[in-house]
Amino acid sequence: MQRSNLSLRGLEIFQLIAKSGSASKVSKETGLSISTISHHLRGVEESLGMDLVDHSKRPMILTPAGVIFARHVEEGLRVIRRGETELMSGNLSQVRDLRLGIVDELDSEVAPELAQQLSLAMPNCTFKHLNRPSHAILHMLHEKKLDVGVATRPIADVSDLIEFPLLRDPFVIALPINATETPEDCLAGRSKMPFLRYSQNLIIGNLIELHLRRTRVSLPNRFEFESNHSLLGMVAEGRGWAITTPASYNRAKRYQNRIALHAFQNKAFSRVLAVYCSDLYPRATAELIADIVRSLLSSHFVIPILDSLPWLSPDFYVLDPSST
C-alpha cells in the first residue's frame, strides 16, 4: 500500500473545517486566506485519493469517508499536541504561540503589564491577546480557540480544563454615597431605589442570582446590564443599588468617590478568578502566567483597595498557588 503524503497543517485545517463546515470561518480563525484553506484541504484529499467534504453544499458536509477520517485526525492531533507539551514543558524560551484571553475586569491594568512580562519570559513567542467576558473565554478554551484564559470560575463544571486559582473576590453591596437606605433595606425590598442587575448572560450575574435564590431574596428585575461601567455609573448617579465585587468596583474608578461599598451581614459569598488551560497546554507556561497575574492583582487591586477599605481583608485576597 502506498503511503500518502499528508501535511500536519493540512490535517489541522481539515479538522477545523470538519467542526465548522465553513472555509470562511476557518479563515477568520487562522488568519489564512480562503484560497489557502482550500489548497490545504484539497492537498489532504488528493493525498488520500478521495473526497472528504461535499464541496457543493454550504455549510460543507463531511462525506462518509470524511466522517471516519475526522475521528482519527482528532485522535492523532491530540497525541501530537500532547507530545509537544511534554517536550516544551519547563522550556519557556521554546514557546512559539500563545492565544491568551483575559476577562474584561483586568483589561486596562493587568493585561498590558502581563503582556510585557510574558514577552520577556518567552522571547520567541507570537502573542494574541483577547479581552472577553468570562463565559466567552471559557467557551473559546473548550473550542480550542484559546490556549490560556483568565476568567471567573463558573457554576457549570469545567473539569476538562486545568484551573490555577488567582483571587478571592467577595460580593458586596454598592449604594450611592449619600443613600439613606441600609443594605438590609435593599435586600428586604424596602428601598425606593431599584436593584441594578448584572446580565444573566454573564457568570457574575448567574452567581448573584443563584445566591439570591438560595437565600430566598426576590427582587424585581427592572434593570439588567452587561456593562460594569454602566451599572456602577447608575449607582453613582443615585439611580439604584447593586451587588458587585471589589475587583469590579476597582475597574470603575471614575465613579468610586460617589459609591459606598457595604459587606453582606449574613450569608456572605464570593467569586474566584482563575487561569484556565487544557491538559494539552504546557503546565509550566500556565503556571508562569498565573504567578504573574497574582502579582499584578496584588499590586493593582488588593493592596490599593484594602488601603481604603480594610474591612474587606478577611475575604479579599490573592489565592496561594498551593490551592491549585
List the helices and strands and how they pair.
Blueprint (H helix, E strand, L loop, with lengths): L7 H13 L2 H8 L3 H15 L4 E2 L6 E2 L1 H25 L8 E7 L6 H12 L4 E7 L1 H9 L5 E5 L8 E10 L1 E5 L6 H5 L7 E4 L4 H12 L8 E3 L2 H9 L4 E4 L1 H6 L7 E4 L7 E9 L4 H26 L8 E2 L6
Parallel strand pairs: 3-4, 3-5, 8-9, 8-10
Antiparallel strand pairs: 1-2, 5-12, 6-12, 6-13, 7-10, 7-11
Helix pairs in contact: 1-3, 1-4, 5-11
Short characterization:
One of its GO terms (molecular function) is DNA binding. This protein has helices at residues 8-20, 23-30, 34-48, 64-88, 110-121, 134-142, 183-187, 203-214, 228-236, 246-251, 283-308; strands at residues 53-54, 61-62, 97-103, 126-132, 148-152, 161-170, 172-176, 195-198, 223-225, 241-244, 259-262, 270-278, 317-318. It is α/β, with parallel strands linked by helices and 324 residues long.
